[in-house]
Design goal:
The protein has 8 helices and 4 strands, in the order H-H-H-E-H-E-H-E-H-E-H-H. By secondary structure, it is α/β, with parallel strands linked by helices. The protein has a domain at about 50-175: 3-Layer(aba) Sandwich (Rossmann fold), CATH 3.40.50.12280. It has a 4-stranded parallel β-sheet. Helix 6 (about 120-125) links the parallel strand 3 (about 115-120) and strand 4. The longest helix is centred in the C-terminal third of the chain and has 17 residues, at about 155-170. The chain is elongated. It starts with 7 loop residues before the first helix and ends in a 9-residue tail after the last helix.
Length: about 190
């Protein structure tokens, strides 16, 4: 005859069969991990994006961030911020002109460490169909890009996939921060 497991209230009142039953119940409910794994788990699941949209990709980014169908909050990227001092992930969506290259770099420098960048759309990665003298052909010429999301414009599902790829990258390397990755200590913005 199989017995029902004891509830927490019954265990607190001392209604356990033996000490071994109590120890087994406690061991079933405990999780052990390292500090690095806990830190990377919390970084992966608490991204605060800064949206920087300049073209049609911005509409898809807004749909992904604020729309009911593709809600970024389900994936740990909560509210898209308007201030770089409250964000740790930059979503660069759309074309990047030469005039705005320094502005985007300054926004990136003002973000919290560790920080990540997603280049969304063909224009952000290669200047796309607007490839002319006024555009920067590739956002990686201005700032380090972690994930490229292809498309013209990419669908909200593609941006979510890119965020999931970035989360996997964050989970795999707990010692993040682009300055450590690229050996660029001492390149901080001077006030």
């Amino acid at each position: 005859m199989k017995r029902e497991p004891l509830t927490s209230r019954q265990r607190l009142r001392g209604m356990t069969e033996s000490e071994a039953d109590l120890e087994a119940a406690v061991e079933d409910r405990m999780i052990f991990t390292t500090l690095d794994k806990a830190k990377s788990w919390s970084r992966r699941n608490a991204l605060f994006p800064l949206g920087y949209g300049t073209a049609c990709c911005a509409i898809e980014m807004i749909t992904t961030a604020a729309g009911p169908r593709a809600d970024l909050a389900r994936f740990g990227a909560e509210v898209v911020r308007a201030s770089p001092r409250q964000a740790d992930m930059l979503i660069l969506s759309g074309r990047l002109s030469i005039k705005w290259g320094d502005v985007v770099r300054r926004l990136y420098d003002q973000m919290l460490e560790p920080k990540w960048v997603i280049a969304m759309g063909a224009c952000a990665s290669s200047a796309g169909m607007f490839n002319n003298y006024a555009l920067i052909a590739g956002a990686d010429k201005v700032l380090p890009v972690d994930v490229y999301v292809p498309g013209c414009p990419p669908r909200p599902e593609a941006l979510i996939y890119g965020i999931n790829k970035l989360q996997a990258k964050i989970a795999g390397d707990p010692a993040l921060g682009w300055r450590q990755r690229y050996g660029a200590e001492g390149t901080e913005e001077r006030a």
